[in-house]
């Protein structure tokens, strides 16, 4: 069966259907990683996005459920050049995995032309259909998007927490749609983690007696989350760190602004260097918004890291509060582990605070 991708600007692509036979709408984004299709498709930050991969062979090692980053496939669609529908350790293929979560796919698409088009014309909305488009784009888009919009899935929330043992730093994670790997990394670095939805209130969080607060990654526009008073209160009470959406929200909470990028950073080889050095680490990234550098002027934030290719702000710290954040993904999954120092830095910040109060 054929499948049809129509972009907002009238461009269209054809391919062969796989996964679920549903029709869907969302924003088209591309990921440049050679591996990690499963982690990307299950990363809640891709909710409401139709994800294409620049690497041509996708599905080569199947699906290994242990690598899921959330409770299911959160991307709206997978769009690939060559589908290699190989089974993973439990016999699950990419095609079967998408079907299981009612997510459509399209293969034999010219993903190179699609990506070049997005790079030139910038990220845009699209519909993925089972037949050629007959009515106008906007009507079809609105109808489909209303039917299939995905909300951040806060499937990891562990609240109410077990009583805190008190021997290891207790991180309360504000969950905007976290990747499992962030929770796993905190645990690996010796933290106890309680995950609360971003709709939690201050009293509930204080009751958990956190040693530190971590703002997770998540989908969509950071300016759409109604959480700034909560975050402002938290960062004055506890050591606070943020990853990706969490970084953007900390910037907003401190008076900076965020803005959409032309086509974002989604891949696992983005160089990042400290603001005062050209020594780079290679990072995993997935973001379509960024902090506006000009908006930092009247804030108490300082830039700590920059993207090596285009100078995007990749790290911020507060001048006097124990707060810092990164735009990249230190937890990798997929990607290199160069940035794991983030977790050491966060732990040290929490231990310093605990020691100061001892
Ligand atoms: N991975 C993330 O947290 C993404 C943050 C935000 N949704 C963006 O696209 O920029």
From TrEMBL:
Pfam families for this protein: CPSase_sm_chain, GATase
Region annotated CPSase, chain positions: 1-169
CDD domains xref list: GATase1_CPSase
Pathway stated in the Swiss-Prot or TrEMBL entry: Pyrimidine metabolism; UMP biosynthesis via de novo pathway; (S)-dihydroorotate from bicarbonate: step 1/3; Amino-acid biosynthesis; L-arginine biosynthesis; carbamoyl phosphate from bicarbonate: step 1/1
Residue sites binding L-glutamine per the record: 45, 218, 220, 245, 248, 286, 288-289
Keyword Coiled coil attached: no
Active site, per annotation: 244, 329, 331
Residues in Carbamoyl-phosphate synthase small subunit N-terminal domain copies: 1-129
Catalytic reaction equation(s): L-glutamine + H2O = L-glutamate + NH4(+); hydrogencarbonate + L-glutamine + 2 ATP + H2O = carbamoyl phosphate + L-glutamate + 2 ADP + phosphate + 2 H(+)
PROSITE patterns: GATASE_TYPE_1
EC nos: 6.3.5.5
This protein's UniProt keywords: Amino-acid biosynthesis, Arginine biosynthesis, ATP-binding, Glutamine amidotransferase, Ligase, Nucleotide-binding, Pyrimidine biosynthesis
Family to which the UniProt record says this protein belongs: Belongs to the CarA family.
Function: Small subunit of the glutamine-dependent carbamoyl phosphate synthetase (CPSase). CPSase catalyzes the formation of carbamoyl phosphate from the ammonia moiety of glutamine, carbonate, and phosphate donated by ATP, constituting the first step of 2 biosynthetic pathways, one leading to arginine and/or urea and the other to pyrimidine nucleotides. The small subunit (glutamine amidotransferase) binds and cleaves glutamine to supply the large subunit with the substrate ammonia.
Subunit structure: Composed of two chains; the small (or glutamine) chain promotes the hydrolysis of glutamine to ammonia, which is used by the large (or ammonia) chain to synthesize carbamoyl phosphate. Tetramer of heterodimers (alpha,beta)4.
PANTHER family in the cross-refs: CARBAMOYL-PHOSPHATE SYNTHASE SMALL CHAIN, MULTIFUNCTIONAL TRYPTOPHAN BIOSYNTHESIS PROTEIN-RELATED
Protein name: Carbamoyl phosphate synthase small chain
Gene designation: carA
């Amino acid at each position: 069966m054929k499948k049809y991708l129509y972009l907002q600007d009238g461009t269209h692509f054809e391919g062969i259907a796989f996964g679920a036979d549903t029709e869907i709408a969302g924003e088209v984004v591309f990921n440049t990683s050679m591996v990690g299709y499963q982690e990307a498709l299950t990363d809640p930050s891709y909710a409401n996005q139709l994800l294409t991969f620049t690497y041509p062979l996708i599905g080569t090692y199947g699906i290994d459920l242990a690598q899921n980053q959330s409770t299911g496939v959160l991307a709206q669609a997978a769009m690939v050049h060559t589908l290699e529908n190989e089974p993973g350790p439990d016999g699950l293929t990419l095609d079967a995995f998408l079907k299981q979560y009612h997510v459509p796919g399209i293969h034999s698409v010219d993903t190179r032309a699609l990506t070049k088009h997005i790079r030139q014309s910038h990220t845009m909305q699209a519909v993925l259909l089972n037949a050629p488009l007959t009515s106008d784009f906007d009507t079809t888009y609105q109808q489909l998007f209303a039917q299939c919009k995905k909300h951040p899935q806060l499937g990891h929330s562990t609240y109410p927490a077990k009583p805190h043992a008190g021997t290891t730093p207790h991180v309360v994670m504000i969950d905007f749609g976290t990747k499992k790997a962030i929770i796993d990394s905190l645990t690996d670095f010796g933290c106890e983690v309680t995950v609360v939805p971003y709709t939690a209130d201050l009293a509930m969080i204080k009751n958990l007696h956190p040693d530190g607060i971590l703002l997770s990654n998540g989908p969509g526009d950071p300016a759409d989350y109604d959480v700034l008073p909560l975050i402002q209160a938290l960062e004055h009470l506890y050591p606070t760190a943020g990853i990706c959406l969490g970084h953007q929200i900390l910037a907003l909470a401190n008076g900076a602004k965020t803005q959409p990028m032309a086509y974002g950073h989604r891949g696992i080889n983005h160089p990042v260097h400290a603001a005062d050095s050209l020594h780079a680490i290679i990072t995993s990234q997935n973001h379509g918004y960024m902090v506006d550098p000009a908006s930092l002027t009247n804030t108490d934030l300082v830039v700590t890291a920059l993207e090596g290719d285009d100078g995007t702000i990749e790290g911020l710290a507060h001048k006097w509060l124990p707060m810092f954040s990164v735009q990249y993904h230190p937890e990798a999954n997929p990607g290199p582990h160069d940035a794991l120092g983030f977790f050491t830095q966060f732990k040290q910040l929490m231990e310093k605070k605990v020691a100061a109060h001892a």
